[in-house]
Amino acid sequence: MNYLSVESLAKSYGAHELFQDLTFGIQQGQKVGLVAQNGAGKTSLLRLLSGDEQPDSGRIVYRKDLTVVFLSQEVKIDESLTIEQAIFDSATKTNGKKAGVIQAIESYEKALLDPENGEALQRALDLMDAEQGWDFETLYKQILSRLELHNTDQKVSTLSGGQKKRLALAQALVCGPDLLILDEPTNHLDLAMIEWLEDYLSSSNMTLFMVTHDRYFLDRVCQEILELDQQKFHLYKGNYAYYLEKRQARIEQFDTESGKAKQLFSKELAWMRRQPKARTTKSKSRIDDFAQIKARAQERRNDHEIQLEFMMDRLGNKIAEFHHVHLSRQNNLLLEDFSYRFQKGERLGIIGANGSGKSSFLELLTGGLLPDQGKVIWGDTIKFGYFKQDGLPEYKDKKVIDIIRDFGEYIPLKKGRQLSASELLQRFLFDRKKQYDSVDKLSGGEKKRLFLCTVLIQNPNFLILDEPTNDLDVMTINVLEQFLLDFPGCLIVVSHDRFFMDKVVDHLFVFQGAGQIDDFPGNYSDFRSLNGPVSQRSNKPEKIQDSSEKLPKAKSGLSYLEQKEFQKLERAIEKLERERETLQQQFASEDWSLKEINDQSMALEQIIANLDQNTERWFALSAKIDAS
Fold first, then answer.
1. Which of 225, 345, 485, 559: CA 20 to 30 A from 374?
2. CA gyration radius for the chain?
3. Residue ranges with strand state E in 417-561
C-alpha cells in the first residue's frame, strides 16, 4: 500500500539548485533512512514533505486519511501546557482516533478529584475500559519515563532545550502515526535512550522515513537507504552496511562508464573535426548522438573530501592532572575524590546519562569551572581545542571567510607549508561563492563544519569534541574520523554516536552518577558486550505518581483488571527469566557460527528488554498493593 508519492520534485534557492525532477515513494511498513552530504537538501526535502515550504515544481501526495507525524529539529510546543497536557494535545490534534481515549483519561482524572461520587467514578472507569485508556496511559508514561521526563505536571516553559526535544519525540511516538518522519531523532538523547528508541522503532509497525547521522541507528532500524547524490535518488534495499557496499560498487561502475564515455568522446570529436561541411543523412544522425556522448563524458562526481592536515603545537610531558577533585551542582554530586593524570596520545571517550557530570568535567579540565575541593593542574605547553555542542557564536551578517581571517590570512600546515584562508575554506567544501555568504545563510551541518575548522586551525595539541557529529553528514564524519586516527595529540570525545566512538577512542570514562567515574579499557562496543546495553543498566527512574492510586482500593489494592494484569505479568516474567537463562547457557556451550551468534544476541537483547518492561509494570502494581 502506497503511503507517500513524490513526483518530479524541484527546489532552488535563488541560483542554488538543490534538486531537479526527484521522484520516489514510501510503502506501508518501510523503514527508510535518507543519506546525503550537507547542503544537498535533506532538511529542505523534509520541510517540503511537512508543508513548511513549497516546491518549485512537482507534487507530494499522501494517501487519504493517513496519520502522518513530523519530528523536526525545531521544537514548537505550547509552553503554557504541562508535559501531560502537551502529550494529550498532540495526540488529539494529530490522530483523531485518539480523541476518545484522551477524553476517557481526562474524565477519569477528573473523577478521581471527587472520590465520594461513586457513580461518576464508575462511569469514568467504564469509559476507560471501553476506550482502552489503560493501555494508552501505560504507553505514554513508559515513553516519558524512558526519555527521563518523569514529572508529568511540570510546565513546558520550565524544560531545558534538550528536554523539550525529548518531549517532542514522545509526542510523535505516542500519537501512533501511520507514517513517522524524523529529522535527527537521536540528537539530545543519551546512549540508554538511543538504544531504547532503536528497539522501539525496529519492533514497531510504524512506517518510517528519517534523516540521521547515527550509523548504528541506521543499520539497526532502517531496512532501506535512500541516497540523495548529485541531485538524484538511489535506493538500496538493505541496511546501512549493505548501502556502503553497494554504493561503492555504483561509484566504481560510474567511473568505468565515465572512462568509456571519455574514450568514445575523443574518438567522435576527432571524427567531427574531419567531416566536410556537406554531410549525409547518416552523418547527421551521428552528429546528433555526439551531443549526448559529450554530456556523458563531461559528467563529474562532486566527491571532494575535506583534507585535514593542520600543524600541532608540541605537547610536553606534563599535560593535565586531577588531584582529589570534588564537584557538586544543586545538591547533585558530580565528582567525588577524583584523581587522574592524562598521558601523551590519550584517546578517551566519555559516556553517561544526561546530568551525570560529563559537561562539567570538561569545563573543569579546560578551566571554565573550579572544583569544590582538590585541584586541576595543567602543563605549560597544553593548548586546548574545544568543540562545544553550542557551535559557533552568533555572527550577525559576518561573512564565512571573515571568520577564518580572524585567525590569520594564512594558516600553517605540516612541513612548513601554508594555506590562504580562501584555500582552507575550499578544503572544508566551501566554494568561493559560499565563502562570501553570511553565516546565517548556512545549513546546520555547514555551520558545524565551519566551527570545526575554527577549532582545528588554532593548532591544538589537546582536542575536546563534545557531540561533534550532530548535524554533520555521514561523509564528513568519515573524513573527521580519519583525521582523528592520525592526530598525535590528546583526544577526548563525548558523543552518542557509537560508531564514531568505536573508531577513535581506546578507553572510556563511564559516568555512573553520584560522583562515580569508571575507567573502562576499551571502546563502546567492548563495554556493551561485557555489560549489556546501557538502556538496561540505567538507574531506575524515580517512581511516577500514578493518579489511579487515588482510587479507593479493593482489599488487594488493585482493580479487577489490574489483578488480572498482575497475575499475567508474574507468569510472563517467570517465562522470560527461563528463556534468558537458557539462552545465556547456550552461549557458553554451543559452537555457533558468527551469524548464529549475532542472531541469538539480538534475541537475547529482545528478551531482556521485554523482561525489563514487564518488571517495571510489576513493581508499579506491587507498590499499589503495599500502599493498601
1. 345
2. 29
3. 418-420, 462-466, 490-494, 507-513, 516-520
Which of helix, strand or coil describes residue 407? coil
What one-character DSSP code corresponds to residue 590? -
Is residue 100 included in any domain, yes or no? Answer: yes
For the beta carbon of residue 341, count every other beta carbon within 10 angstroms.
Answer: 12
Residue 292 shares a structural domain with residue 341:
no
> Cα separations (Å) of 492 from 188, 195, 284, 575?
19, 22, 65, 43
Q: Are 347 and 426 found together in one domain?
A: yes
The residue type at 434: K
| CA distance linking residue 496 with residue 500, whole number of Å | 9
Residues 475 and 501 in one domain: yes
Give the tens place of pLDDT for each residue, 251-305: 776 667 666 666 666 666 665 666 655 555 556 666 666 666 666 555 554 444 5
The residue out of 113, 147, 163 marking a domain boundary is 163
Give the alpha-carbon dihedral of 571, 577, 580, 582, to 10 degrees.
-90
Percentage of residues of the chain with pLDDT beyond 90 = 25
Indicate whether 375 and 477 sit together in one domain.
yes
Range of the domain at 292: 251-297
Q: Provide the edge-to-edge strand list for the sheet that holds 2-13.
A: 16-27, 2-13, 57-62
In a domain, 193, yes or no: no
Cα separation values, 450 from 134, 141, 508, 537, Å: 50, 40, 28, 37
Closest CA to 214 of 194, 234, 196: 194
Strand partners, 211: 34, 183
Given a contact cutoff of 8 angstroms between Cβ atoms, the answer to whether 290 and 340 are in contact is no
H/E segment holding residue 614: helix 594-627
Looking up cell 482493580, which residue turns up? 559
CATH number of the domain within which 333 lies: 3.40.50.300
C-alpha cell at 51: 508543508
430 and 355 fall within a common domain: yes
User: Among all chains, which residue has been given the C-alpha cell 523503514?
Assistant: 31
Find, among 188, 150, 196, the residue nearest to 541 by Cα.
150
Residue 207 β-bridge partners = 179
- pLDDT tens-digit series, residues 448-469: 888 888 888 788 899 999 988 8
- Partners of 377 in the β-ladder: 321
Residue 19 within any structural domain of the chain: no
Over 476-495, what HEC string results?
A: HHHHHHHHHHHCCCEEEEEC
Neighbour-count burial for 516-528, b at 16+ CB within 10 Å, e otherwise: bbeebebbbeebb
- For residue 246 the three cell numbers come to 553497494
Let me know whether 388 and 490 are in one domain: yes
Calpha distance 532→535 (Å, rounded)? 8
CB neighbours of residue 559 within 10 Å = 18
Secondary structure letter of residue 547 according to DSSP: G
